[in-house]
Write a structure and sequence with these properties.
The complex is a heterodimer.
Chain A lengths: L4 E10 L5 E11 L4 E5 L6 H8 L7 E6 L2 E2 L5 H11 E4 L11 H6 L9 H14 L15 H13 L5 E5 L7 H16 L4 E5 L2 H6 L2 E6 L2 E2 L2
Parallel strand pairs in A: 3-8, 3-9, 6-7, 7-8
Antiparallel strand pairs in A: 1-2, 1-4, 4-5, 9-10
Chain B lengths: L13 H8 L1 H5 L1 H39 L3 E6 L14 H7 L3 E9 L5 E2 L13 E5 L3 H5 L3 E4 L11 E4 L1 H7 L9 E4 L2 E9 L6 H4 L1 E5 H7 L8 E6 L4 H12 L7 E4 L2 H43 L1 H10 L3 H38 L7 H28 L2 H7 L1
Parallel strand pairs in B: 4-9, 6-8
Antiparallel strand pairs in B: 1-10, 1-11, 2-4, 2-10, 3-7, 5-8, 6-9, 7-8
Helix pairs in contact in B: 1-12, 3-10, 3-12, 3-13, 10-12, 10-13, 11-14, 12-13
The chains are: A alpha/beta, B alpha+beta.
Chain lengths: ~220, ~400
């Protein structure tokens, strides 16, 4: 069976003097339906790894495959297409469109698939129900609480049923109670079949995942 | 194992482009309005200049059309102290015989004669009015018309009867001819029998009290020499006739005869208007350029402020082109709105100015169309650099620095 996400000897070096080797040969396979926590201290290369895995950046060498598709073979346009159709990302800073309501923010997750607005909104309503925000559909994003904003962001990443959902420090900007609720939501979504990769330095978050990968100095620690 | 087929491309529907491209405008309407203002001012200036010029030119052309360009005046080329000097005795009749002349009327300015409302006013207070002897055909030669009363005819030309030019009547206070209207002319009373409408091509007639040749010769000592001859020509041969008239009027000294075409003064206004139009169009273009730079500035700032949004869109699957198009369309919209506002503003200025001057306001459709097009072009050009900058931003960098 093909892994949902597969990294083969992935390296990322940033030019400079001396060059900075942020990721130094990571091998990782995440299977469909898994929930994996990538943990490690700050500076261990977690965020770089997420950017590479989520197709936001290209590795210096090695291969990243999403559902068997090697990203290094894709043109910029194809890579953008892959992000639109196969990947979902949740950020620590949420990145919501403040002037738009929750439903339109979530619907933006399908914007670049060329799906008509009416269908996007219908799907967004469903996704908001899934993250427990059915009562906040038409609230402007800037009027929502931090936890609600992150739920909107998760619904936006989830709406397109991505092969892998990446979450970069999803609880980093939230108080612990709200963070726990978000964590519980991610676990629940995973139980519902979503493949999730969480990047975190929070061991509490990491312990929620069944599988844990520790990163140290750009390598997977044994 | 076969390689899986390349996945689908990302795609932004046309119907979604407009809402996406107006996010910046909707979230910061004040800034959008200010950046639109520069372009609006430039376009308004250009449209107003073209509109006002066209309106005034149309007015002049209508005037020329109404008055005709085939009126010539023949006078001596060396007037003394504002007084016309004499032409030879037979000037009028030989002018009349010239080929291409349809009609000619002789007039003679009578020196040192003043006109008064009554005989009690001292001589020094002349009021700047002239006494002019004329033949009875003057009215038709000038294509002038009467405000009141009748013109001189064969019968009245020999008697102390006067027709007043429009301005002369105003100065003398002769408003209508209901009562006993007499004026003191030279050393006797003249009866006012008519008042002329203003004669636009011969303002000297407006200031004159017109009397017949007979009355001038018998009572006021006129020696029969005309000083100014009005000539109506065949329209197609006006210039040719004008070149022949000096010799006809004074065969002995053609160089001492000046032929002028009063409508040239009007035509000259068209040329002058053209020159000032280019100047003001240039100023409008500069304003437009500055407006465009303003839009470019605002767009650059906007792109920097919205790095997070750019990064998010890339993460959601936007290709570079989608980001570029979003910002270019936003900039084009700013330009187009500026153009629209500018055209309306320019049209309003034209209407107000034209009505103020009593012209028919004309807003050339080409000016409005070109103004709008220029604004769109300015918006496009202004948006290209910021849009490319946004598109080239690597998503990770955009997300990290947001």
């Amino acid at each position: 069976m093909t892994a949902a996400l597969e990294l083969v000897d992935v390296r990322k070096t940033y030019p400079g003097s001396p060059p900075v080797e942020s990721v130094r040969g990571v091998d990782l396979a995440v299977h469909s339906g898994e929930m994996v926590a990538v943990v490690g201290p700050s500076g261990s290369g977690k965020s770089t790894l997420l950017n590479l895995a989520a197709g936001l950046d290209r590795p210096t060498s090695g291969s990243v495959r999403i559902a068997g598709e090697p990203l290094e073979k894709l043109s910029e346009r194809r890579l953008a297409g892959l992000r639109a159709h196969r990947l979902g990302v949740v950020f620590q800073q949420f990145f919501l469109l403040d002037h738009a309501d929750a439903r339109d923010n979530v619907a933006a997750g399908l914007l670049y698939r060329g799906i008509p607005a009416r269908q996007r909104r219908a799907a967004a309503e469903h996704a908001l129900e899934q993250v427990g925000l059915g009562h906040r559909m038409r609230h402007r994003a800037r009027l929502l609480s931090g936890g609600e904003r992150q739920r909107v962001a998760i619904a936006r990443a989830l709406i397109g049923r991505p092969a892998v959902l990446f979450a970069d420090e999803p609880t980093g900007n939230l108080d612990s109670a709200t963070g726990d609720a978000i964590l519980e939501l991610l676990c629940e979504l995973n139980r519902g079949g979503a493949t999730i990769v969480v990047i975190t330095h929070d061991t509490h978050v990491a312990s929620a995942a069944r599988r844990r990968v520790t990163l140290r100095d750009g390598r997977v620690a044994p | 194992m076969r390689r899986p087929p390349a996945g689908p491309l990302s795609r932004l529907r046309l119907a979604d482009l407009l809402p996406v491209a107006t996010i910046g405008l909707r979230t910061r309407p004040g800034r959008a309005a200010l950046s639109v203002l520069g372009v609006a001012i430039g376009i308004a200036a250009m449209v107003a200049v073209l509109g006002v010029t066209r309106s005034s030119q149309a007015e002049v052309l209508a005037q020329l059309d109404r008055l005709g360009t085939n009126l010539l005046t023949v006078a001596s080329s060396d007037p003394r102290g504002g007084q016309e000097t004499q032409l030879p005795d037979g000037a009028a009749s030989s002018v009349r015989r010239t080929e291409g002349v349809l009609a000619a009327s002789a007039t003679a300015q009578l020196d040192d004669l003043a006109v008064y409302r009554s005989d009690l006013i001292p001589d020094a207070h002349g009021g700047g009015l002239d006494v002019r002897a004329t033949d009875t055909a003057l009215l038709s030669t000038l294509d002038a018309s009467l405000l009141n009363g009748v013109f001189l005819d064969e019968a009245t030309a020999n008697y102390p009867v006067v027709v007043l030019g429009f301005k002369a009547a105003t100065v003398l206070g002769v408003a209508d001819l209901t009562g006993d209207d007499r004026i003191w002319l030279g050393d006797r009373w003249f009866v006012v029998v008519g008042i002329l409408q203003p004669v636009e091509l011969a303002p000297e007639i407006d200031r004159a009290a017109l009397i017949g040749f007979g009355a001038a010769a018998s009572g006021l000592g006129w020696d029969g020499h005309p000083t100014r001859v009005y000539v109506r020509t065949d329209t197609t041969r006006t210039e040719e006739v004008a070149s022949m008239l000096p010799r006809a009027a004074n065969p002995q000294a053609a160089s001492r005869v000046a032929v002028s075409r009063p409508s040239d003064v009007l035509s000259a206004r068209l040329t002058v208007a053209d020159a000032t139009t280019s100047l003001f169009l240039g100023l409008g273009a500069v304003a437009l350029l500055v407006g465009g730079i303003g839009i470019a500035n605002v767009m650059v700032i906007s792109v920097l402020e919205r790095r997070g949004e750019v990064g998010l869109r890339r993460a959601l699957g936007a290709a570079r082109r989608h980001v570029a198009v979003q910002f270019v369309v936003e900039s084009v919209l700013l330009g187009a709105v500026g153009g629209g506002v500018g055209v309306l503003l320019g049209a309003a200025v034209t209407v107000v100015l034209a009505q103020n001057r009593g012209w028919q306001p004309i807003i050339p459709p080409a000016a409005a169309g070109l103004g709008l097009a220029a604004a769109v072009v300015v918006g496009t050009v202004a948006g290209l650099y910021p849009a490319l900058r946004a598109a080239r931003m690597p998503p990770t960098e955009a997300l990290r620095t947001a």
